[in-house]
């Protein structure tokens, strides 16, 4: 066989569907090079370049196409992908680079007793398709971006300064917000073994959204926890809590929660703050976390939202440069102080009894108090790495020195309850994001989540029933919405196609309505 024929056999033409094409366009627009995208997808550079050149037509094709159906897998592959979603959510919260997992598939086959001969390989191309189906578009494997991108950070700082200068923004108008996970009831393993035998490790966590501006002003924290109605909140209105309390079954930020916070918490708070004669023009800096909507600039005319370049959070994100570490250290200090006070009073508790009685409401109060402890000097000093102007306004703040002082105080408090701790122990607690979940952990966590959802459904939700009046109102609202789209859409064929799909989807509800009628 001639070499050219052999080469032709090796290079089989690959068909790239519309969904993958738009994903390639988005990756390129997000700053990834043609070579990088080519290597990641296993597609030739010429094909990637052709798709990018044709990006306008591809985007128009997406706008005019009907929703794409996703093929569902079955057996252990489907179960593995469900567990992989849980694992990825855990890694996202910890801001840990992702790595491929292949052994999980075999573990599932053994544990669940699947009679399944199909083999599975967690290739990069499979992982990219899985991310798209699971809506994890912004995630990268650990081998792709192992270190912070300092080359991308330098031109961004220059461009950021240009935007601030052109917009004539004041320090009071420039804000940064960032999420951090908090294992709010965590203590070191060796302390549990020495002083609290029988006390089970408590891995419950929550997410805090902390925010402030260049002048050092801090806004009320947002707290996301997994449960809405807790016993600790009995006879307590959430409106008077010292935090904005929101819930999510995974206790982490989502696009819906962020948009709700942005419109109903952030904008009203900064509007009130800026009534002191400063124009209501806000410049907000965010990272590219999956829970941050890219369309925030469209929600308010007085808001300018700028996103950090990919993989630069650790070197540019202001809140990460001292505010969040200081907050966590203060939280740990306050918790130990309360433990000492509880054990030293007349009818003192044991350390184990204190931790068992430490509830989420105590945690919320501590979070609010310790956020207040973060000084204006700290909130001002965290902007040094990202801003070229207002540098002369920065007051002295040394991150490492401040954290060392707090750690020393915690060590002294620990000694009062006969705990041997040093500064390294404190650092590990402040930076703790928990261990990576094992395959057994993932399978157990899935079982626990299902059981918890069933329990909450049984206890908190009233039985669901179809009510004719409410069904009629729902049909009416859907029809009103479709009429609005019909007035806006110049493409009659497209609207007819979408309307037909929606009416087909609603057929089951209409049948129920007719039966009741």
From TrEMBL:
Gene3D superfamilies: Homeodomain-like. Pfam families: DDE_1 (PF03184). Residues 205-383 form the DDE-1 domain. GO terms for molecular function: DNA binding. One of its GO terms (cellular component) is nucleus. InterPro entries: CenT-Element_Derived, DDE_SF_endonuclease_dom, Homeodomain-like_sf. This is DDE-1 domain-containing protein. It comes from Pelodiscus sinensis (Chinese softshell turtle).
């Amino acid at each position: 066989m001639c070499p050219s024929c052999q080469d032709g056999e090796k290079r089989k033409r690959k068909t790239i569907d519309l969904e993958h094409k738009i994903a390639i366009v988005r990756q390129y627009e997000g700053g990834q090079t043609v070579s990088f995208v080519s290597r990641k997808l296993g597609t030739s550079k010429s094909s990637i370049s052709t798709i990018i050149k044709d990006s306008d037509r591809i985007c128009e094709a997406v706008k005019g196409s009907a929703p794409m159906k996703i093929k569902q897998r079955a057996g252990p592959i489907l179960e593995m992908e469900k567990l992989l979603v849980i694992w990825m959510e855990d890694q996202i919260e910890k801001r840990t680079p992702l790595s491929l997992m292949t052994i999980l598939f075999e573990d599932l086959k053994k544990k669940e007793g699947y009679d399944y001969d199909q083999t599975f390989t967690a290739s990069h191309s499979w992982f990219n398709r899985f991310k798209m189906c699971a809506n994890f578009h912004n995630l990268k494997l650990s081998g792709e971006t192992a270190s912070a991108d300092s080359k991308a950070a330098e031109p961004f700082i220059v461009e950021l300064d240009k935007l601030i200068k052109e917009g004539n923004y004041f320090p009071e108008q420039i804000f940064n917000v960032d999420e951090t996970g908090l294992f709010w009831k965590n203590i070191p393993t060796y302390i549990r073994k020495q002083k609290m035998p029988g006390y089970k490790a408590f891995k419950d966590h929550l997410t805090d959204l902390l925010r402030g501006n260049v002048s050092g002003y801090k806004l009320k924290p947002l707290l996301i926890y997994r449960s809405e109605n807790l016993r600790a909140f009995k006879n307590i209105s959430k409106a008077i809590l010292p935090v904005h309390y929101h819930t999510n079954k995974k206790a982490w930020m989502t696009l819906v929660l962020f948009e709700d916070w942005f419109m109903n918490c952030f904008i009203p708070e900064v509007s009130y703050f800026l009534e002191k004669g400063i124009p209501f023009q806000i410049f907000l800096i965010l990272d590219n976390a999956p829970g941050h909507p890219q369309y925030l600039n469209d929600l308010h005319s007085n808001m300018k939202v700028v996103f950090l370049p990919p993989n630069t959070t650790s070197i540019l994100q202001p809140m990460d440069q001292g505010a969040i570490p200081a907050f966590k250290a203060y939280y740990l200090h306050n918790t130990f102080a309360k433990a000492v006070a509880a054990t030293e009073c007349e009818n003192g508790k044991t350390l184990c009894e204190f931790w068992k009685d430490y509830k989420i409401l105590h945690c919320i109060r501590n979070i609010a108090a310790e956020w207040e402890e973060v000084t204006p000097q700290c909130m001002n000093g965290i902007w040094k790495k990202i801003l070229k102007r207002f540098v002369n306004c920065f007051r002295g703040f040394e991150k490492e020195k401040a954290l060392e002082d707090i750690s020393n105080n915690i060590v002294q408090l620990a000694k009062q309850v006969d705990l041997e701790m040093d500064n390294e122990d404190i650092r590990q607690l402040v930076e703790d994001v928990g261990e990576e979940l094992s395959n057994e952990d993932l399978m157990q966590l899935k079982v626990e989540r299902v059981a918890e959802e069933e329990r909450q459904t049984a206890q908190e939700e009233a039985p669901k029933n179809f009510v004719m009046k409410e069904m009629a109102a729902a049909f009416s609202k859907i029809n009103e919405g479709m009429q609005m789209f019909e007035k806006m859409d110049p493409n009659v064929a497209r609207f007819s196609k979408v309307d037909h799909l929606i009416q087909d989807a609603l057929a089951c509800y209409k049948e129920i309505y007719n039966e009741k009628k």
